Amino acid sequence: MRSWTARPGDGAVTATSGPGAGVLPHPPGALTATSRTRRTVLRGLPLLPSVVLMLIFLAGPIAYCVYYAFTDMRLTGASATHFVGFGNFTKAFGDANFRNAVWLTLVFTVLSSIVGQNVLGLFLAALMRNASRGVRAAASTVVVVSWVIPEVVAAYLLYAFFRREGELNTILRVLHLPQQNWLFTLPIVAVSVANVWRGTAFSMLVYSAALQEIPADITEAAEVDGAGRWRKLWHITLPMIRRSIGTNLMLNTLQTLSVFGLIFVMTRGGPGNRSETLPLYMYEQAFQDSLIGYGTAVALMLLVVGGLFSVLYLRLLRTEV
Amino acid sequence: MAVVSSTKPGVRRERVRDTRTRSAPRRSRRRTERLVVDAVLLVVTVVFLVPLAWLVLASFNGTADLRVRVPHPFTLDNFHRVLNSDITYRPVLNGLILCGGATALCVVCAVLAAYPLSRYESRYKRPFLLSILFTTGLPITAVMVPVYAMFVQVNLIDTMYGTILFLGSSALPFAIWLTKNFMDGVPLVLEEAAWTDGATSLQTLRHVVVPLMWPGITVVTIFTFLSMWGNFFVPFFLLLSPDQLPASVSILNFFSSRGTVDYGQLAAFSTIYSAPVVVLYAVMSRVLGGSSALGGALKG
To answer: What φ, ψ does residue B164 adopt, rounded to 5°?
Structure first.
């Protein structure tokens, strides 16, 4: 890290009076090259521990990931590691199980994140604005508690809910509706609903904050002009919170792409591979079949997709960093 | 726990005046509208509540199964059975060491890193912050396979400190981002005084900035700890020996080691394991004055 200068608008704090300035008597701009370098290094020094940790434990594994993905590495010890070029990738796309995992990941993401969490979160946030105080407090507490409890606990709770002898079927029996063994017949729907149950609070919080920022006079003006509920929603509310919608969709999607524990506990990717999304497929290949190289290639694809979403997210944010 | 903060007082007064000036049929329409909204919201709440209700009721139930029932007989037996060193104390202690250590590492590093990022300009600052934000979006699950391979090669696998280092580092990008945003809110005036008195930047940070932003640091600390406490896959991948596993992984034993699952004990253990999270979250939203502020901070 070099050339840190004082923040503009600091007023009295010029380059010479900041910490680590080294030489006080010089007027601003008259620092010699060596003392400027020295000041810069001193100022950047507090970043060092974080930078070192992130280089070793985040950038390192990502670089490893790129390297391993092109090898046939195994952790069995007997076989040596060879460079196999794009072999892992051609193998993946030729594998029906991999294509199945890609498809299920897509279904899981669209169903639980884009449709479920996002729409339900907005719906709840909008309802809460017009609800009475007690109901609002109760609803937000319950929704937020299901968000903050640990992932594995949430997974067990929803597992219990969807089991054949679980609560969902009990409710359906009371309502005289057909019952099913949900975890067997519709496993991907069950885990998607679980993810909605667990993740909606985040969208709700983001949208509550966004809705509060809409000035009241605009909606009132629309009411005076005779706009109905749906037109108000479509022409005023949605356009005014579109940035929050974008951010929320990105964050939800990124979160959902890497869901592992929830599905692992509820179904282990089964029955068969009917709820095996990419993270679970990766786990199975890398650890149960100890194909580290191949598993890493799958991980790399997941990383690239996540990276693309992340870039999109940064563009949407357009923060002034 | 009033999580979503209520509408601003000014807005509310406006609305009250509104209804008063409106004609009677309009006012009654408003009232029915509120009733409908309340009813719909209550239905959603009940649906969300069902799994949570099962958790609490089953943990006190002597004959718990998968249905939501009033405990019969009501008993603390499930808690007595799980409160021993093998099932509860050791995993919870492991979790505390793991998450406590990683949180301490992460927050100290994040506060140090946030200082130059918040206080000085540099041509490297923008790219640095952007890459940090970018990293917060990456699916960490995907990195676990190479991390596992790397840990096996350098003999960090199945070590507490190795796992602490990785947990702490993976939480760093977001913690730095959050801390920097909180630090930006601390005015510069007091620091200027310290600087002119000849304090170094570390002294200024410790004696001026940190005391001024303790609510922010509390939030970062609790948030980091909570995300680690619930983290399943990092310890699941990196720790192998049963006596080192934290509660998030040892909970799997309820299924694998015994043939039949004792749902009452599973629920009791889950309650114990989840309770600190709910309490800490309540503390955090109290500090923030409603967690919608966290929503705002998350948006960046």
So the answer is: -60, -45
